[in-house]
Amino acid sequence: MKPNCIFTQLRIIAVLIALSATFCAGAKKQADEDSVRILFIGNSFTYHNNMPDMVRDIATTQKLKYSCSRIVKGGQRLSGHLKNPVLTETLAKGGWDYVIIQEQSSDPAGPTSLVREKVYPAAHTLDSLVHAGSPDAKVIFFMTWGHKYGSIFNVRNNDHSYPLSDSYEGMQERLKTSYLEMAYDNNAWCAPVGMAWKVAKEQVPNLWLYNQDSYHPSKAGSYLAANVIFTTILQRHYQTKYDAGLSPETAEALQRIAQDTVLDNLTLLNIAR
């Protein structure tokens, strides 16, 4: 074969490869644009068991396209996230439909004065940054759950100066109050994972929602959280065959608890007015 012919064929192949890459990139971009774009901001309570992917997979069973991104770091507080240029740049670029915000697991359960000083201002700043880049986005504050035996950090530090957070019940009530106030103060919604967690503990007492450390979520705990967040966005009942590897009976029970907790409390959660 003549060199010119070989050169021509190589050029054709190169052009076809470039066109294919452009088509694939365009298809991906179009797929992203067709999806509901959700950003998760939080720490290990969010990323354990790939919980954002569970939300996406539940949505898929409902024939919905959710694109779930995350900016997470173990133990991170909202105030720490605000120092992350990747987060601020991501919010500034915009294009988000929902932003799920989760604070460090025990800070919102502390004394009211400290929560007002350290938690609420960071929550408000994040909410403002979200809407600066995505004016139509909805912020959802992810209410976490009380540690099994009260704040693990109180135990580790032998600090019992605030007894309300020394038990599961007291810690959960403080978390509930703080997260609802964050939602009210910022005209946001609240995803009541902690409230659903309490119901699940009562209705399915043999179900282990915690990891072995007694404060991170087990797979069942993350599945419950994913269903609460999905219901908060969807705002109606649904059935899904996605069970995250749990037994069908367990998955169905957690779906029901998640949906009832959200849909029976739409006004409390600042979703309906």
* Average pLDDT, all residues: 89
Instruction: Please tell me how large the radius of gyration is.
Output: 22 Å
Straight-line N-to-C gap: 76 Å
Helix content: 40-55%
Strand arrangement within the widest β-sheet reads 2-1-3-4-5
Determine the strand fraction and express it as a percent band.
5-15%
* DSSP summary, beta strand count: 5
What's the tally of helices? 11
What is the overall silhouette? globular
Run of helices and strands = HEHHEHHEHEHHEHHH
Characterize the structure shown.
This protein has 273 residues and is α/β, with parallel strands linked by helices. The chain is 55% helix and 10% strand. The chain has 11 helices and 5 strands, in the order αβααβααβαβααβααα. The chain has a 5-stranded parallel sheet, sandwiched between helices.
Summarize the structure.
This protein has 273 residues and is an alpha/beta fold. It is 55% helix and 10% strand.
Write the layout of secondary structure elements.
Layout: H1 3-34, E1 36-42, H2 44-47, H3 51-61, E2 66-72, H4 78-81, H5 85-93, E3 98-101, H6 112-133, E4 138-142, H7 152-157, H8 168-185, E5 189-191, H9 193-203, H10 219-234, H11 248-263
Helix pairs in contact: 3-10, 5-6, 9-10, 9-11, 10-11
Structural descriptors:
273 residues, alpha/beta, 5-stranded parallel β-sheet, globular
